[in-house]
Amino acid sequence: MKKLVLTSLFVTMVFIVTACGDDENSSHDQSTTSENQPAMSIEDVVEKMDALDYSVVDFDVLYADTEFEGEIEHDAGLVEAEFYYPLEEVDARGKEAFDAIFPFVQKLDVHYDMTDEEAIKASLEVFNLPENFLKAELEVKFKDGTQKTFIVNNNEM
């Protein structure tokens, strides 16, 4: 129980620090964040995650000269997110990562019965990633608790 409380407190602090952080060094387009938009609470984030078919999406793509990493996880009322998207100059964690990755995950349409190739192709399309990868791995935990990992190795490079 103590671990759950400490974890909850940590995640809450990460969201607060991220929301209050200094954006002077931010390299992403400032037009995507507006001071006119109301602040999103943790309850709003959890509510958005509840609307998805997944509780975990972890997508990693390795290229010859770069990589892509996107992860969003909802577990026991806590939401964690990491997003490294060098093609769009995004490297974020916490609330900033959630805001960046959620629109992509919301469009993702992956099912347990898909082949590895189908799931990876669908994910690449949603995230607008090139298909000339060395390896792509997508781990999904569906709302019903089932998990599946889709892996494609591209040895043509």
Count of DSSP strands: 6
Question: For the terminal residues, how far apart are their CA atoms?
Answer: 49 Å
Radius of gyration: 16 Å
The major beta sheet can be summarized as: 6 strands, antiparallel
Short description:
The chain is of the alpha+beta class. It is built from four helices and six strands; from the N terminus they run ααββββααββ. The chain has a six-stranded antiparallel beta sheet with strand order 4-3-2-1-5-6.
How would you describe the overall organization of this protein?
The protein is an alpha+beta fold and 157 residues long. The chain has one domain. The protein is built from 4 helices and 6 strands; from the N terminus they run ααββββααββ. It has helices at 2-20, 42-50, 94-107, 116-126; strands at 54-62, 67-75, 78-85, 90-93, 135-142, 147-153. Strands 4-3-2-1-5-6 form a 6-stranded antiparallel sheet. A hairpin with a 4-residue loop joins β5 and β6 (147-153). The radius of gyration is 16 Å and the shape is globular. It starts with a helix and ends with a strand. Residues 1-39 have low confidence and may be disordered. Keywords: Signal. Residues 1-19 form the signal peptide. This is YusW family protein.
